[in-house]
Hints:
Elements: H1 2-12, E1 18-19, E2 25-28, E3 31-34, H2 36-47, E4 52-53, H3 59-68, E5 77-80, H4 83-92, E6 96-100, E7 119-121, H5 124-130
Parallel strand pairs: 1-4, 5-6, 6-7
Antiparallel strand pairs: 2-3
Helix pairs in contact: 1-2
Amino acid sequence: YEVIEKACKFIMEGARFIGTNPDLTGPTDFGIVPAVGALTAPIELATGVKPYYVGKPNPLMMRSALRRLNSHSENTVMIGDRMDTDIVAGLETGLETILVLTGVTKKEDIRKYPYQPSRICNSIKDIYDLL
């Protein structure tokens, strides 16, 4: 609580509110745990200031990664387990996308989104079969 309180104080004094990504949860070996979005949410609610996320799904980060890899959207695929960050990041950057169902997004959740991945795989292993 003290860290959240300090963050609110700094933001109200003019500090920039920056987060890595808006993911509310993330998968671990022990199950789903809170992620960055869950930690920034109380600060946003208390201050009324929305964080600027520098990581996925920010297209600037994706384009920077493509440049760093010396790659292009035509020959790069975004693979992820989240429709709301991984897949949308790929789509907004013009990449083919593969949703892997071993993480956060489940098959029954996909229809809730107005966009769709290029492909859906049950596991990372299934991607190998696509090659």
